[in-house]
Prior knowledge:
Radius of gyration: 34 Å
CATH architecture of the largest domain: 3-Layer(aba) Sandwich
CATH class of the largest domain: Alpha Beta
CATH topology of the largest domain: Rossmann fold
CATH superfamily of the largest domain: P-loop containing nucleotide triphosphate hydrolases
Distance between the termini: 90 Å
Amino acid sequence: MTPDLSPRWLRDLERLLPIRAQFVVAGNIRDHFLTPLGNGVLTPAPLTRCLWSSLRRQDYRFLLIYDPVEGLRPYPNEPDAVALATRLFDLKLQDGYMPMSLERLAGIMKRLTRTRNARCALLIDFASRLARHPDQLCAEEHAFFLAAERLAVHAVPVVSREPEAGQAERSPGSNKPRFNPVLWLLNRPQDLPSWFALDNVRVESLNVALPDFETREAAAKSYFTLFKKTETAGPEEREKFARAFALATDGLPLTALSDAAQLADRQGIAFADVDDAVQCYKVGALENPWKKPYLRERIASAAEFIETRVKGQEQAVTKSVDILMRSVMGLTGAQAKSGGNRPRGVLFLAGPTGVGKTELAKTLTQLVFGDERAYIRFDMSEFAEEHAGARLLGAPPGYVGFEAGGELTNAVREKPFSVVLFDEVEKAHPRILDKFLQILEDGRLTDGRGDIAYFSETILVFTSNLGIYTEDASGARAQNVQPGDPYEQVEARVKGAIADYFKYRLSRPELLNRIGDNIVVFNFITPPVAERIFAGMLDNVARRVREEHKLELELAPEARARLMRWCVDDLANGGRGIGNQLESRFINPLARALFTLDFQGRERLRVAEIAENAEKIVSVRLEPS
């Protein structure tokens, strides 16, 4: 059985016309709707045209449309309809419109409901803008809405006359009594005074919803010819295209399909690449970095590239590269029937402090987008209070800062192709973590202004220290894993602690379920790895001296060995701790020595000695090399 693809609000309107005098039509009112036009084929059309197609089949002769800017006009703009409307309502049209006040509109409304010579309807467009504030009406506005409410109570239905020659074919039962209705076209039902429809059975509210899958699939067929390479496409390819188009536009209006098809036409996108057209529409970017040919070459050597910056984390790097390859191949969420809108990749990086979690996020950004600054970072310790969530999504309507939008949604709209880093996620308020449910599942988020940010082209990276410490039976903090533990034990204990945290402490197992098996556990920094980190940092110091002062810096073996012992003696703070020790025990005394040095004629300097006095003050002795 073929489903009825006419919009639900229109079917309800047709059903209720014999018993309702007025209709509040609110929601997705600026969309297109499948309408039988011409030869009966369903074609996407604006609401007004869709409404009139239905009314005409029920013997309505014309539709009066009012908007606060232009005034009143008859629809359709056909000689017979215009002449009849002009005669019945004494219209004085100027360029097709008749300007009028609310008082005069109330008179038109009264005459419409009492007309017996013809079935007709009044559509009040932009009704949300009739009053400055629906619950603070001026005298004129109050009188207008009161008159409209009274007319709804006292209106009576109209019995159709016999059809005239040449009149459009009627639907079965069109000769039954029906009202001459008033339809209020609103963004939200609350845009009318709260008392208007209260306990008034003659006023019906109709919700205009977003199109379902079958409606989008049927509409997609209308846009097939706008795509390239359609000449040789067979019926099966057309059906496959329509299904793919409908899946990719889940949650979007039919106008989005039209806009995406227009973009595809301008960009020369083939029908087989319909997903690219939809993504182009969603994120507002014409080029997709994920489709660049050089990206696969980069990913092929990703492990070696990451190892140059994140040292000693072979297991974490291997799993991260696997997830990255899956993202590049577009297979994230492939196990689901419809997973195309999910983020390209999700990484939950857990482990001790200072082991390279944040550095890995920067490295991935450099690898994919060519610039580590392309990542968007949020320090979740700033969102420890529930009200701080308004910063991410924007304040609700009516609150200060509402017009600014949210920091997260604004950033993703500005950089749709990026790595989004949520640092130390466990420090955020649990209510704020709930926002990630929609991002991880649907790949989108709506801010306080109603604007949608799409995360389908991002990699989401969460970092956390969960699982390193736990609470013992007395509630005291105890170390769950220790340096020197086998990696398998560290991974198992950390993952177990993370699962307990989300399931039992936060009572949000659904969030953990959406993260899935994307938890990457980092190991502690071992002494051999610490020496490699130390060497890399020391090379960075030498490079900075070379760039800033055009001097080649080298260390005597004894000085280097002593400095390394100081820096890698305590690895509790990981690589960041090594950097802190290097700064205090070498960079600071080096800066003091360079500050008083005459560089003229020098090309190389040698750190001959590093010494520490009784007051623990470190000094370096420089000599020409």
